[in-house]
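FORM 7B: Structural annotation worksheet

SECTION A. Query
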Amino acid sequence: MDVHGSATKIYTRLESHIKKVQDIQQRCDEETKFALQTLLCELTESKNLTEEMMRQVIPEKFTSEERGMLLDKIRILEEKEKIYKQQLVLLERKIAKLTEENKTFKTQLTATQTEQAQFKSALHTRQIAYDFENDLAKYIYPPTEKYGSRQIFTKMRRWVNKEEDTPGRREAKAKWEDLKRDCSWSDEYNEVFDDLVKSGIRIAHPNVDSTTALTSRSELEKRCIEAMMRMTDKVNELMK
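SECTION B. Predicted structure
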């Protein structure tokens, strides 16, 4: 056996293992880092022993006994290298598992953040709708007209458009037409409004954040929400 050649091959492989360990250390948890550091120390020690042996190898000066001792060291180093390789494989598998778990966590986190954004958007949209239909009803209906607390906007539209002609209804219809013109209200918003209310979450009424309310909405929904806010402000101004 070529002692120097065998030692050189082991040395090269050990260097490769050390670089791989150092690379893995950059992307693992603390527990794995500790295991890697231990392995790195052992690899470095073996590498240094191999390097020292390579410097000492002068074939023509070997006695048979010295050659035998060096071959024994080579075999020990080769056995150790096999163990190191097995440890590296296990650590790489652990890193792969941690990486996959991290990806799954990030995916779940993104989904949760999206859900949270949609929840906040629905909550603020519902508050805008609540202010819109309640303030609008106070302004449109005659003082003596009762309008209840459910489907206020839908019922108001029906009431305004009833065939029965009364002074109160004529005035209410004129107010509604003026508001629609002044606040750029489109008739297609009526159905959008109903859908928004159905999907809204009827819980606490926060201070309205229009930016949050407009998050994750279609362009048509955004225009409807903005028109509701304009009309709510206009009604409050007219009732002062």
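SECTION C. Observations
The CA atoms of residues 14 and 81 lie 7 Å apart. Helices lie at 3-25, 30-56, 64-140, 152-160, 167-182, 188-199, 210-213, 219-238.

SECTION D. Sign-off
Analyst initials: ____
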